[in-house]
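quick q for whoever's on today - can somebody do inverse folding on this one?? i tried earlier but teh output was garbage lol. tokens:
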């Protein structure tokens, strides 16, 4: 029998020992998805940071706008790959497959979004997200002009940058904590 691997190098609290608001959120996610994504359990180790993390996550990923929920997930997958974050590529790749209704898109975006079957608009969006992730100090007016030529507004550009930046934080925490992707993610949205 194979021993189960730890989902984090830090302590993971028992559900029963978590503050009520955190436990309620985790139970709601479990009821919706059928399992508890490990990110919820790992971050519950630090309740105040859990609340702040998910408040900002939700503000970025669940709001209406000119970028679709699938496009927002593309940003996460492409930038998480650059940051070598296995957890986020696998978990958000699963969400991307479901939101895009395409079992191939997440793998294409994770490996090389420039060769993926996505629109020129989406490639411009990901070019900018990658620039923010790897060399934000080089962002210039020409980046804004390129995005605007593809129909992105100033608010959209802020959103793309914020998602890239937020998941830079998430990628680093996932790597430092040795957060393991749930096995369920690998099968989600594959048809």
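ok took a stab at it. sequence:
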């Amino acid at each position: 029998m194979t021993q189960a691997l730890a989902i984090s190098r830090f302590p993971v609290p028992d559900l029963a020992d978590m503050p009520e608001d955190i436990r309620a959120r985790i139970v709601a996610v479990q009821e919706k998805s059928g399992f508890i994504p490990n990110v919820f359990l790992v971050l519950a180790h630090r309740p105040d940071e859990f609340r702040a993390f998910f408040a900002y996550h939700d503000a970025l990923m669940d709001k209406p706008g000119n970028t679709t929920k699938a496009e927002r997930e593309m940003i996460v997958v492409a930038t998480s790959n650059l940051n070598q974050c296995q957890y986020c590529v696998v978990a958000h790749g699963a969400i991307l497959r479901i939101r895009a209704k395409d079992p191939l898109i997440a793998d294409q975006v994770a490996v090389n979004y420039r060769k993926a079957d996505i629109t020129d608009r989406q490639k411009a969006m990901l070019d900018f997200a990658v620039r923010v992730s790897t060399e934000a100090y080089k962002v210039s007016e020409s980046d804004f002009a390129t995005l605007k030529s593809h129909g992105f507004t100033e608010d959209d550009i802020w959103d793309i940058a914020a998602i890239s930046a937020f998941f830079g934080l998430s990628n680093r925490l996932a790597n430092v904590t040795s957060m393991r992707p749930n096995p369920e993610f690998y099968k989600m949205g594959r048809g």
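fwiw The CA atoms of residues 105 and 118 lie 8 Å apart. also The two ends are 30 Å apart (CA to CA). so keep that in mind when u check it
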